[in-house]
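Narrative summary of target 7.
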Amino acid sequence: MLVDRPPRERAPGAAALPDRRAVRAAGLLASAAILALVALASIAMGAKDLSPAQVWHGLFQDSGRYGDVVVGERLSRTVLGLLAGAALGLAGAVLQALTRNPLADPGLLGINAGASAAVVTALTYFGVTSLSGYVWFAFLGAAAVGALVWFLGGGRGATPVRLALAGTAISAALYGYLQAVMITDGAALGRMRFWTVGSLASAGDGTLTQVLPFLAAGTVLALLLARPLNALAMGDDTARALGARPHRTRALAMLAATVLCGAATAACGPIVFVGLMVPHAVRSFTGPDLRWILPYAALLAPVLLLGADVVGRIAARPAELQVGVVTAIIGGPVFILLVRRRRTARL
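Modeled conformation, tokenized:
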């Protein structure tokens, strides 16, 4: 005898899960479209604005005046902004997951301070004045401080609190060294003034080819760490039960953040706020899953960086404001608003 069975009830939220994934995927496409528009604006806007037709001619047809402006100056600057912004966004997201601190940024672990101290040393004591020379000092300084923070934080037994404390202590010591050198050496102060603010103007000096391998390697490593870091967020015991290795995951996360932030800082200077605000803002609509946070951060951090660079070029025509200044001016109030909304939502 055949008996009609009642339809199986769907678990609460089961139907919403695919929809939520679809919304997130659509958000990634929208973020990519926004990034493309901002990149086009970065090429078209500057001391003198170019029309879309002039940009097209400069990119594909004209090797004369428009080609010199578009290809020779603005295109490489835009590409550097895309790469450095993605690196800072990924580094910030990885460090926030590693330290379990939504307000963490690359400066928390001393990476920016290490790069800055190395550049000051190269300028003052080794006579290095070209970007192609001190870019390697910046990267090595960031890598050395990253390794030192890992060692002082406990090595294989490192914890988020120990890493943050070690990074804060080393940053304080290195910034004291920076101030001492620049106060006693006026020439070093003059040479460092432009770099320490943060700028994309160095893109035409072969910077891209020097930092691209490091940025590519750091990006791949960061994306591969999404699942292990998700498991680590639930505690070491749970992470081991899920097949993750907490000590190795922390070491690789430190390596990825150091490579990404070190290369970006070496190329552009210590640009603040991008690695702090963007992953924090992204988490508010993606949730804690790093499989979504990392791609969103890689797309939206360049939007902030290139947008700030465009604003700096327009606001001070025919001169320009360095992008590091603009990110601090724009980002500070926005971040305060995000924090206040988060706090209000919890009340």
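Confidence is low (pLDDT under 50) at residues 6-16.
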